[in-house]
Amino acid sequence: MSDDLSTRDATAMAELVASGDASPLELVDAAIERVEAVNGEVNAVIHSLYDEARAKAQADLPDGPFKGVPFLLKDLGAAEAGQPLHMGMQALKDAGFRAPMTTYLAQRFNDAGLITIGKTNTPELGILPTTEPRAYGPTRNPWDTSRSAGGSSGGSGAAVAAGMVPMAHANDGGGSIRIPASNNGLVGLKPTRQRITEGPMIGDNLSGLTCELVVSRSVRDTARILDAVHGGAPGDPYACPDPLRPYVEELTDESKGLRIGQMTAPAVPADVDPECVAAVESAAKLLESLGHELTGSSPMDAIPDAGEAGVDIQDSFLTRWAAGQTAVLDQVSMIAGRQLTADDVEPLTWTLAEIGRERDSGRYLRDVAVHQGISRMIAGWYEAGHDLLLTPTMAEVAPKLGSFDDSGPDPMEAFHRAFPSGAFTALLNVTGQPAISLPLHWTPEGVPVGVQLVAPFGREDLLIRVAAQLEQAAPWADRRAGVYAG
After folding, report:
1. Phi/psi zone of residue 189: left (φ > 0), alpha (ψ -120 to 50 degrees), beta?
2. Alpha-carbon 59 to chain mean position
3. What is the sign of the dihedral through the CA atoms of 430, 431, 433 and 439?
4. How many Cα atoms occupy the beta-carbon half-sphere of 373 within 13 Å?
5. How far is CA 130 from CA 77, 168, 222, in A?
6. How far is it, in rounded angstroms, from Cα 117 to Cα 375?
7. ∠ CA 102-194-177, rounded to 5°
8. Catalytic residue among 56, 74, 93, 119
9. pLDDT at 1
10. Which residue from 462, 428, 475 is spatially nearest to 259, judged by alpha carbons?
11. In this structure, are residues 368 and 432 in contact, taking their beta carbons and an 8 Å threshold?
12. Distance between CA 187 and CA 50 in Å, rounded?
């Protein structure tokens, strides 16, 4: 049964439970078998929760859309009380730290009927677009184990691509849902800022850079889980507008005539791999064949260069990113009962935290204001007559493991090395817009290359509608990674 189940998405697994053709315990046992079969090759799952999962599978489960479906939580962000929460940090691993409470999103995953069987690997504090923490070792890409699975949700991406589970939790502060989706041949939707609550422990993380959802095999799974978990919660600092209708209704909407811009030059200096450009060009032709209009226009035309108006996307992003690491290290120091030192964390983590301490609160507010200005400029491009934007997900094909080494004299070299991975994704964390990565291209060597669609603020409906059209026109469900539990 395990081999047969590995080919099914989460919706199909839930249908087996609903029809009585499989029990939740059978699904969980089969998923555990698959994890045990291939995790040694990819190192995606770092905490097993098998006994807890089996007990839940035999108890009364919520009658949600994914009742009885096995699932994995990333070891960063959404968490269940009492489960390990180490965030890629050796200090938390050594302390045996466990989540003090269940987050609202984790509870919504439970209410949807999902059964968490383990937790997935992540880089330290989710900083880099590769998953190679010193605490748990590298996660390897199932399509090519010499390559990165991406980050920071690389463990989740590798687990789904290797057939362990059909869908896994992921979050995104600069591309951490979409980059693993691209590297692993998956669907990865970054929702609109505050579409999904991050409470109760987080309200406005890094002034709104981060958001949470999943990586999955199918657009329909992404639509259904978004329907199940979206919405605010008491105490959230602000809210996203409600969708116009359930997202699953977009799956069968065949409307045409959307105006779609196209961008293959990123907002930050980075060379773009020809395979990434080819992925966009192929997707553009496919979209035209589906009845949409490709204009060739880009919202980057609306953003002045740094030299003209002081708009420096890279440096202003660094201000917010570094401040986040400073704040987290202070929080972990409180958990540890002592002040953390450079010896407790990886060199890049410490360097970023030091930058966060050096840049004062005035500079932080100034750089947030710069980002808000960029958001208005890009919103104006959509208001002027565009529905979507098409870009590569990344400026590079999945890089080799070891490419982000921070052990040299300047740990920031690893941060700068990350630019090609996040060149097209991080800007959308700045603006808060929704964006989706789709597996529409593979290199001649068989490595996945994602394409990204970007919608106006609050318009995930457009992304799901067009993504479903593309999935039907150029299906990817039958593709299998080289390391696959099936």
Report:
1. beta
2. 31
3. negative
4. 15
5. 17, 17, 23
6. 39
7. 80
8. 74
9. 55
10. 462
11. no
12. 26
Residues in the chain: 486
Residue type, 140: R
| 372: enclosing H helix or E strand | helix 361-383
Q: Is 156 a catalytic residue?
A: no
Quote the CA–CA distance of 10 and 64 in Å, as a whole number.
12
pLDDT at 309: 52
pLDDT attached to residue 307: 45
Catalytic residue among 152, 153, 297, 375: 152
**152 counts as catalytic:** yes
- Taking CB atoms within 8 Å and a gap of at least 24, the contacts of 466-469 are 466/258, 466/287, 466/290, 466/292, 466/388, 467/187, 467/219, 467/222, 467/436, 467/438, 468/219, 468/220, 468/223, 468/250, 468/251, 468/252, 468/253, 469/254, 469/290
Task: Show the tokens assigned to 51.
Answer: 């006994």
Pull the structure tokens for residue 222. Answer: 């992404």
What is the sign of the dihedral through the CA atoms of 72, 181, 89 and 199? negative
Annotated active-site residue in 6, 148, 156, 176: 176
Which residue shows structure tokens 């002081």? 310
DSSP 446: S
- DSSP secondary structure of 271-340: ---HHHHHHHHHHHHHHHHTTPEE----GGGGSPPHHHH---HHHHHHHHHHHHHHHHHHHHHHHHTS--
DSSP-assigned letters across all residues of 167-228: EEEEEESSSTTHHHHHHHT-EEEEPPTTSB--TTT-SSGGGTT-EEEEEES-HHHHHHHHHH
Tokens of 49: 């929760």
Q: Is-cis flag, bond preceding 200, omega within 30?
A: yes
Whole-number CA gyration radius for the chain:
21
Give the relative orientation of helices 313-336 and 361-383 as an angle to the nearest 10 degrees.
130
Mean pLDDT split into 10-residue runs, the chain, 486 residues: 82 98 97 98 98 98 98 98 98 96 98 98 98 98 98 98 98 98 99 97 93 98 98 94 96 97 91 98 98 94 59 90 97 92 98 98 95 94 96 98 97 97 96 98 98 98 98 97 96
Residues 6+ apart with CB under 8 A from 332: 89, 91, 92, 340
Structure token pair of residue 401:
């493991």
Q: Phi/psi at 234 (nearest 5 deg)?
A: -55, 135
Residues ≥6 apart with Cβ < 8 Å to 20? none
